[in-house]
Design goal:
The complex is a heterotrimer of chains A (about 350), B (about 290) and C (about 300). Chain B has about 290 residues and is of the alpha/beta class. Chain B is about 30% helix and about 25% strand. In chain B, strand 11 and strand 12 form a beta hairpin. The radius of gyration of chain B is 19 Å and the shape is globular. Chain C is α/β, with parallel strands linked by helices. In chain C, the strands form three sheets. In chain C, strands 7, 8, 9, 10 and 11 form a five-stranded mixed beta sheet that branches. Classes of the chains: A mainly alpha (about 350), B alpha/beta (about 290), C alpha/beta (about 300). Chains in contact: A-B, A-C.
Chain lengths: ~350, ~290, ~300
């Protein structure tokens, strides 16, 4: 496939604009899907669709609470959490140069689980523990646990210089903290059900304050990510090449890992451990649009947000008025997608 | 692709004006090292190497596998820590240049690049990173540099294609274009002709020569293929015991440096103004 | 078992009968075959004298039948009555300590249906008997079965009668006290939120007290609800753990629920909670605790 002869004379900018129009289409599609999902989220829940539509037209106090205090912040919060996970996943895949990387590579999931376990045990152990646990909440405990795990990983790998040692340290920390969590759970198995709820993820209690928090964190994360995107492109050519191009590698990695950590910790704190969104969203963008990180780091959050919104919707709809854990839905969807990728790869070979 | 092979007649990348090395009359070599020692951990690969590389010449590093060609290149590019000695770029210590300034003056091509699925033009565009920075606001001079580089390597026809859809040789030419796009006065290339078939290898050799002679770039390349290396201006010959010699081709041949380096008889013949390596094999008998 | 005879002729008759019956296999009076909840028919040649229980409700049942002294070990979580706390602990529900059990040479190990240890005990030649108590009806069955095994059928019948009497009395009192319909309640088992439905043991107790569960029977015993459901059905009383109670108002939309607004919340201490959550001989105590709270917050 050669470029048309006219293009050779015109120069390169025209190629770029063709690619950006594809990106714009993608953006428009994502936004449209998001709007649709948000609308659907308003009418899906414990009430039938007719009832919900009735509420929209003729609201009363209770239905207003359900629509605007429960359903709307829940879907918006889910979008921001999914966006954070999508962004974190894209960054992880770029920094580790591995398409199977996900946001939990640095041990964040195990750290968050441990934080929640400690918080639940403390609440049970003493009055002081109850107060402290109440103040921080499971949200805060998960967040702190995630950050602690990342700090431990970076310490173990003696800085961010070596990707391989970071990965290894992340795996070690994940196993270690998991083991500690299991041991602690043995002392009080009654909290196992709560832990399971956390481990499977839940968007059930996302309020306006949660959604705003997630939104703020997202705005804080997306700006440096977009700025550093080109560094990730250079990194994909190889670390030495990136360095020779003038990239400050340690600083770049530190900044990217910082964004990754903040995004993942915030998301995990609010919705628990939701898998596959961070893995699948960047893949989807790469397949349909581009691998260029400037576009990937914008597209992956949009895709991730829509994914988690859709999963939240499904989890509320399928066995209403009961609810599936949202992490179980993303696991099914994500798993199916990976199977599809495998099938397509074997077919191509 | 016939248009891919027209090289020396096309406009070639010129080192950008701001990064122009000092006037040829200046005594400071483009790239130099003093008493350089490099190695990994406790193992020293090269010791006490001193070199002067002038602008406007193409030097080829040759030697057996494991003699330290890549190590030397990486050390000169500032990518590996030095065990001892100093490297200077355009008269100043390498470490004293700011990262950005150094990236503008010294371009390095890896032996093998990471697997990436960017398009060819995006990869070449990364070569302008030291000039256009993080925000990648492309100015016309960036576009012009990219276009020149892609024309020179014959990779313009697949500018919009992803690297994974290109063959090994096509990809290598995109990487070369990326290096040329930097338009740096010093070019360090580790095995630039891998994956390329002979006609393209010849094109690259011609390209490097014109970069050196035509644009005053200091080109240093590690090349496996002896015949190709012998088309350069100067040779750095490395052996298992370290640096064997550094000088013109004539000096290398007179001193039989290659035989010393490879620890075996290396036959170089001259034919029609070109030096060729002649393997010591008899012609197969026609039975 | 000792029978007391008041007259000498009766005594002579009894001795004669005993001598005749002496020809039969020893301990014939205690021979029984019981079917456990794993559908195994277990033969008891004699009353078990050394018993290990691996489930708190089974421990309570054995002790309620007056055979506490026969226990040589319990599981880690058995805490009632007081005297079992000093017994050796043989692990938890999933991690029973086989070595300890074998070392104690028990005649019988009482387990729940889902424990994996039963196969292992069988291989080691130790008798085990599985009993599952999920619902109210299972309590009587468990008591009767254990009574038969221990040779305490009479005590078992008495215990069942007293349990039923206690439960019925409390239920009747509750209904008497109430004028009109009972309060709507939501019993939260876990903060996910998991609720106790009418099909669960807790649900049965609530129903006997006349409380109306906002969760319908079609949702199962312990459904994981959409939190919006509770807001929608606006219960009068919420049963919740002490740990989660302060956070209720923070849940989106929950500050609108009547029970939260008016602080009609019921929480139980851990030991009381055990009587509510574990179907066992102390079910009446659990029911009373629930009723006391209902009387307090929703008279």
């Amino acid at each position: 496939m050669s470029a048309p002869p006219a293009l050779v004379g015109l120069g390169l900018p025209d190629l770029e604009s063709r690619v950006s129009s594809r990106m714009l289409l993608w953006l428009a599609a994502c936004l449209a899907i998001t709007m649709l999902l948000t609308g659907a989220s308003l009418i899906v829940g414990t009430s039938s669709i007719e009832t919900s539509l009735g509420w929209l037209l003729a609201p009363d106090t209770q239905s207003s609470v359900i629509l605007w205090q429960i359903r709307l912040p829940r879907t918006i919060g889910a979008w921001f959490a999914g966006a954070l996970l999508g962004l974190a996943g894209a960054i992880a895949q770029g920094v580790f140069r591995n398409r199977l990387a996900d946001p939990y590579l640095l041990g964040t999931a195990s750290g968050a689980a441990l934080g929640v376990t400690i918080s639940l045990l403390a609440a049970d152990a003493s009055i002081a523990g109850l107060e402290w646990a109440g103040k921080i909440g499971i949200t805060g405990a998960a967040c702190i646990g995630a950050c602690a795990a990342i700090a431990l990983t970076i310490m173990l790998s003696r800085g961010v210089l070596q990707t391989a040692s970071l990965l290894l340290a992340g795996i070690v920390v994940a196993f270690l903290l998991s083991a500690v969590t299991s041991l602690l759970l043995l002392t009080k198995p009654e909290i196992w059900r709560t832990m399971q709820g956390f481990l499977l993820g839940s968007t059930g209690y996302l309020s306006w304050s949660s959604a705003s928090l997630l939104g703020i964190v997202f705005s804080i994360c997306i700006v440096p990510a977009a700025l550093l995107a080109r560094g990730l492109d250079a990194l994909s050519l190889g670390e030495d090449t990136a360095q020779s191009l003038g990239l400050p590698l340690p600083m770049l990695r530190l900044a990217l890992l910082g964004v990754l950590s903040l995004a993942t910790a915030a998301a995990v704190g609010q919705v628990g451990i939701v898998g596959f969104v961070g893995l699948v969203a960047p893949h989807l963008v790469r397949e349909t649009v581009s691998v260029n990180h400037r576009q990937l780091l914008i597209g992956a959050p949009l895709c991730g947000g829509a994914l988690l919104q859709a999963a939240d919707l499904v989890s509320r709809w399928i066995i209403r008025p009961a609810e599936l854990p949202v992490g179980a839905v993303t696991a099914c969807v994500g798993g199916a997608y990976l199977v599809f990728l495998l099938w397509r790869r074997s077919r191509d070979e | 692709m016939s248009e891919a092979r027209t090289l020396s007649t096309a406009r070639l990348p010129q080192p950008s004006a701001t990064a122009q090395s000092p006037a040829p009359l200046s005594p400071a070599p483009a790239l130099a090292c003093r008493a350089l020692s490099v190695g990994y951990g406790a193992h020293t690969v090269l010791e006490g190497v001193s070199l002067n590389l002038a602008a406007g010449s193409w030097t080829a590093i040759v030697g057996p596998n494991g003699s330290g060609k890549s190590t030397l290149l990486r050390a000169l590019a500032g990518l590996s820590p030095l065990l001892a000695g100093t490297v200077s770029l355009q008269g100043r210590d390498l470490a004293s240049w700011s990262r950005r300034e150094r990236a503008r003056r010294l371009a390095w091509l890896a032996q093998s690049s990471g697997a990436t699925d960017l398009t060819a033009s995006e990869v070449v565009g990364l070569g302008r990173f030291a000039h256009s920075g993080w925000l990648a606001h492309r100015k016309s001079e960036d576009d012009a540099a990219m276009r020149r580089a892609m024309l020179a390597t014959g990779s313009l026809p697949w500018a919009a294609r992803r690297l994974s859809t290109l063959s090994g040789g096509e990809r290598q030419r995109v990487y070369l274009a990326r290096v040329l796009a930097v338009e740096a006065p010093v070019l360090l290339l580790d095995e630039p002709t891998t994956h390329l078939d002979p006609p393209h290898q010849e094109d690259i050799a011609r390209l490097l020569r014109s970069q050196a002679h035509g644009c005053g770039v200091c080109v240093l390349s590690a090349i496996h293929d002896l015949s190709l290396a012998l088309t350069a201006d100067r040779l750095i010959v490395l052996g298992f015991d370290g640096l064997i010699g550094h000088g013109t081709i004539r000096e290398a041949l007179d001193g039989d440096w290659l035989s010393t380096a490879f620890r075996t008889r290396v036959n170089i013949v001259e034919h029609a103004g070109v030096y060729l390596w002649r393997p010591a094999l008899e012609m197969p008998s026609r039975d | 078992m000792v029978c007391v005879y008041r007259s000498a002729p009766a005594l002579a008759l009894a001795l004669g009968l005993a001598w005749t019956l002496g020809a039969l296999p020893a301990g014939a009076g205690a021979l029984s075959v019981q079917r456990d909840d794993l559908q195994r028919d277990v033969t008891f040649a004699h009353e078990p004298r050394r018993i290990i229980t691996l489930l708190p409700s089974l421990t309570e049942t054995v002790c309620a039948l007056g055979a506490c002294d026969r226990l040589v070990a319990t599981d880690r979580y058995s805490e009632w009555p007081q005297q079992v706390r000093s017994l050796p602990k043989a692990g938890g529900l999933d991690d029973a300590e086989v070595e300890l059990i074998v070392a104690l040479k028990p005649d019988l190990v009482l387990v729940s249906r889902s424990q994996r240890i039963t196969d292992r005990l069988g291989e080691l030649g130790i008798a085990s008997f599985a009993l599952q108590t999920d619902r109210y009806a299972d309590i009587a069955h468990t008591v009767t079965t254990i009574g038969a095994i221990l040779g305490r059928s009479r005590e078992a019948a008495e215990l069942n009668a007293s349990i039923a009497a206690g439960v019925n009395r409390i239920g009747a009192q509750a209904l008497l006290r109430r004028r009109g319909e009972g309060p709507t309640v939501y019993f939260e088992v876990d903060r996910a939120p998991y609720a106790a439905g009418p099909g669960s043991f807790i649900g049965e107790l609530l129903a006997r007290l006349g409380a109306r569960n906002i969760v319908g029977a079609d949702l199962g015993a312990f459904p994981k609800l959409n939190p919006e459901y509770v807001v929608r059905y606006n219960p009068d009383v919420i049963f919740i753990s002490a740990m989660d109670a302060p956070g209720l108002a923070a849940r989106p939309g929950w500050d609108q629920i009547r029970a939260v607004k008016e602080q009609r919340l019921c929480s139980f201490a851990a030991d009381v909670n055990d009587t509510i959550v574990r179907p066992g001989p102390r079910v009446a105590d659990g029911m009373r605790a629930i009723d006391d709270c209902l009387a307090r917050v929703a008279p």
